[in-house]
UniProtKB/TrEMBL annotation:
Encoding gene (name): Hus1
Any single biological process term in GO: nucleotide-excision repair
Subcellular location: Nucleus
Protein name, per record: HUS1 protein
Taxonomic superkingdom: Eukaryota
Pfam families linked: Hus1
Gene Ontology annotations for the cellular component aspect, listed alphabetically: checkpoint clamp complex; nucleolus; site of double-strand break
Keyword vocabulary terms for this entry: Nucleus
Family statement: Belongs to the HUS1 family.
Length: 198
């Protein structure tokens, strides 16, 4: 609904209107790059010689005839018996959950820090504060983010929430590999409106 005016899905049955596919993300990304200035985009699952996700991009044209670029992306259709392997995992109880700052900003900060250390400490609290810290024998660097906000995990009538009873000011922290964090941040080309860290 956020992306398409028209959406039609035909699964095995009305109550099972899902299809699980696996594909190479780079292929889809490359196909969608041609759609940046598109008038319309149509994505369709086809089965010619093999299952494909067909991306048809209608480009603006100076003449009355339209230009359509078509990409066929090979996909693997995952059988229903394996769908449980792809369910979203249950999230363990966490100490703090916080909205991340703009990922582009975070990436710029982390890229600078990678020249100083191989790992960094992310710490956050329930006051919407997050710090990225590096400590070596030679230098100590901390970047502070404020007013990020914390997601409301518990509904109003539910008094138990993750991190319940935790001091709002106290920081929960985790040490992580900078290169792996950069890989995650570099992969976020869609620029999500919200990303959160728990």
């Amino acid at each position: 609904g956020n992306f398409f005016d028209e959406f039609q899905m035909e699964g095995v049955a009305a109550e099972h209107n899902e299809i699980y596919l696996e594909l190479v993300p780079e292929n889809l990304s490359r196909a969608l790059k041609t759609a940046q200035s598109a008038k319309a985009v149509k994505i369709k699952l086809t089965n010619k010689h093999c299952p494909c996700l067909r991306v048809a991009v209608e480009l603006p044209s100076l003449s009355s005839s339209s230009r359509i670029v078509t990409h066929d992306i090979p996909v693997g259709v995952i059988p229903r018996r394996l769908w449980n392997d792809f369910r979203e995992p249950s999230v363990p109880d966490f100490d703090v959950s916080i909205y991340l700052p703009m990922l582009k900003t975070m990436k710029t900060v982390v890229e600078k820090m990678k020249n100083l250390s191989n790992s960094l400490v992310i710490e956050a609290n329930f006051r919407g504060e997050m710090n990225l810290k590096i400590e070596t024998d030679l230098v100590s660097v901390t970047t502070h983010f404020k007013d990020l906000g914390n997601p409301p995990w518990a509904s109003e009538d539910e008094c138990q929430s993750s991190g319940q009873g935790r001091d709002l000011e106290s920081m929960a922290e985790a040490r992580i590999d900078i290169k792996k964090l950069l890989q995650l941040l570099a992969g976020q080309q869609v620029n999500p409106t919200e990303a959160l860290c728990s």
